[in-house]
Design goal:
Elements: E1 7-11, H1 17-23, E2 29-33, H2 36-45, E3 48-51, E4 66-71, H3 85-88, H4 90-101, H5 107-111, H6 124-132, E5 136-141, H7 146-158, E6 162-169, E7 180-187, E8 199-200, E9 214-215, H8 219-223, H9 251-259, E10 266-269, E11 276-279, E12 296-300, E13 307-310, H10 313-319, H11 332-341, H12 345-352, H13 358-364
Parallel strand pairs: 1-2, 1-4, 2-3, 4-5, 8-9
Antiparallel strand pairs: 5-7, 6-7, 10-11, 10-12, 12-13
Helix pairs in contact: 1-12, 4-7
Length: 365
Amino acid sequence: MSTAAAHVLDLFAGPGGWSQGLRALGVRDIGLEIDAAACATRRAAGHLTIRTDVAAYPTAPLAGKVAGLIGSAPCQPFSAAGLGAGYDDMDLCHQALDDLARGRDTRHLLRARCSDPRSLLVAEPLRYALDLHPQWVALEEVPAALPLFRHTAALLRTAGYSTWAGILNAADYGVPQTRRRAFLLASRHHTVTPPEATHARTAEPESLFGPGRLPWVSMADALGWGATDRTAPTVTAGGGKSGGAEPFPTAARNALLAEQERGAWALRNGNQPNATVRGIHEPAPTVAFGHNSARITWTRDHPDTPESVRITVPEAAALQSFPPGYPFQGTKTKQFEQVGNAVPPLLATTVLTSVLTPAALEVAA
């Protein structure tokens, strides 16, 4: 494979979480994405993008041109926040994987039998991998899809890859969020192992083997609340439904801004009595919005003035480790959706170091 012809292909590319992770390593990808708002975000961020249906896109024109393959299929069928159709479709997904490995493309037949046609998208990375033979593969999904990742990993091993599949917690890698996701890593050229954690719930002391892990990064750290030099974004308005700025912040948001130094607020994930609530000096719970983007709110349980204010897109993006000012496009709902669905860029960078050898970096750059 010639250096000039080699590319990294990003399936279901979204707004660019994987792309930002690669950018930190000096590598660019070409993203395949169907959502118009996500494509607009990628273009605004300078990421190469083809707007297309990943399941319908032909692999033949890409033969010999792909060095690395990234994929984060839509998680809604398997998400705890979804309707659980992916669980009903699990056997059909396993069958699709086995059929592809045998050289039989039964996707259209199996899709018609799925409770949610999106369930079968989890098989697409294997189709691309078997057709294109990339040097390495990195996939991400919600934890419920781990059995499918382990199945995919077994099939990739028979095709000559070293593989690892398991669950990673984003907080263990410096992301201010205890986001647990399944990952599959594969390489043709070296033994793959999971990335070594850099952070822990509490700081670890130095040992004979080197410095200990750092403490988890808190929301306050990520947002610059209480810092003397606020390099992280400090948000002053919630934004309107169309995605524009909100010129007159609510009283609750003004109260949030006034008291962020004191740490009087917490982040509430959900509107149920058992919703997860984290103080700002802890990492956030998983930032995932779905169809109810208003359910993640800053709350203050004060005896006189209990208040609640919706998190903003820049705040949510910072908790996903996107850089300040990342140009999310579309309506406010679409922006929240993009943030929640993305791979945290900081985690992406760490994960990719497990599959990108120096030689692979040179080819993909």
